[in-house]
Amino acid sequence: MSFPSLSDEQERGLVIVLDLMESAKSKAAAMKEKQSKKRKRAKHREREIQSSDTYMKKIYDIDKIHDHELQTSTMSKVPKSSSFLDKMRARLSGGHFRMINEKLYTCTGDEALNYFQEDPALFDVYHAGYKEQMAHWPQQPINIIMNWLRDHGPSLTVADFGCGDARLAKSVKNKVFSFDLVSNDPLVIACDMSKTPLDSSSVDVAVFCLSLMGTNYQSYLQEAYRVLKPCGMLLIAEVKSRFDPNTGGADPDKFSRAVCNIGFTSILKDFANKMFIILHFKKKEKVEPKRKEIEWPELKPCLYKRR
User: Fold this and answer.
1) 96 and 152 within one domain
2) Apex CA 220: angle with CA 219 and CA 224, to 5°?
3) Per-residue pLDDT tens over the stretch 276-305
4) Would you give the DSSP letter of residue 45?
5) Do 273 and 202 have their domain in common?
6) What is the 3-state secondary structure (H, E, C) of 134-153?
7) Residues 30, 33, 34, CA angle at the centre, nearest 5°?
8) What are phi and psi of 119, to 5 degrees?
């Protein structure tokens, strides 16, 4: 059987038709494969959801068992080991603390105040984590400051900048004005520490115990200068690594010079403790003319590693 010959134009048309048919065939195969993969992914997601539901049910069951144990146990009994759920809660709490801690070291005091005003509960999360970290320190700097105040008598009026739970005010006989970003205690005044409600030259001692946290920390020290009486004392306790130039910390001598340029005299530098340093400054009796702009060293953030 012979086929009629085709003209060049007909041949080109036939080639185009065949190409279109081949292309349609390839697209159909690709679509089929795509649908197959889509069905496989859907089945995989379904298995994941089922697995997640099973896992969450286990968590729920563990939680119920844990609550039952708490209800049935006597007050004298102490669990021998933490449950899996307790460990997960602790890990979550630790993560929240590290996040908030980093935020406080890398923002201004005004930004930190707004941060906690939006969600005051974060303040409790932060201080719970802070107490957990402090539990690992062999000595607490707040105790050294308490002892200093006891040695110098209850007549001194104190401003505690970054007071936390107002432990200092609750532990000494002195009149203590306690300032922090959130007030969960009648003794605490919530404010930006660079703008306290105290009158100028109204207190004898200003305390910063691990609280020079904002990027504008120098404004807190300038506020301390404002509220201190002439010859008043500035007591600073800070994490030692923040003042170690070998690990990226500030030069302690440069920091002291900057504080002195506000109008203080350096009285004490104590680097004996391996965890923190103690610095004492005394406000000069006479106000000196303002010098050129003070060069403040950047203080290294104290960021806690995941345990």
Assistant:
1) no
2) 115
3) 999 999 999 987 766 678 999 999 887 765
4) H
5) yes
6) HCCCCCCHHHHHHHHHHHHC
7) 85
8) -150, 85
pLDDT-derived band at 49 (thresholds 50, 70, 90) equals very low
Does 186 fall in a domain? yes
Look at 70 and 114; give whichever has higher pLDDT.
Answer: 114
Judged by DSSP in three states, 10 sits in helix
Q: Are residues 273 and 145 in the same domain?
A: yes
Domain with residue 159: its CATH number is 3.40.50.150
Does pLDDT of 239 surpass 70? yes
Say whether both 106 and 225 belong to one domain.
no
- Which residue shows structure tokens 């069905």? 39
Torsional sign, CA 272, 255, 158, 138: negative
Residues 6+ apart with CB under 8 A from 250: 242, 243, 297, 298, 299, 300
Q: What is the pLDDT of residue 126?
A: 84
What's 100's domain CATH number? 1.10.10.2150
Print the domain residue range for 120: 84-134
Q: Are 165 and 178 in contact (CB under 8 A)?
A: no
Which residue type is seen at 133? Q
Q: Catalogue the E-assigned strands of the chain.
A: 158-161, 176-180, 188-190, 203-209, 228-239, 264-270, 276-283
Question: Do residues 231 and 117 share a domain?
Answer: no
Give yes or no for a contact between 282 and 234, defined as CB atoms under 8 angstroms apart.
yes
Contacts 24+ apart (CB under 8 A), 288-296: 288/263, 291/261, 294/218, 294/258, 294/261, 294/262, 295/254, 295/258, 296/217, 296/218, 296/255, 296/258
Q: Which two tokens stand for residue 233?
A: 């004392």
* Residues with Cβ within 8 Å of residue 167, at least 6 apart in sequence: 142
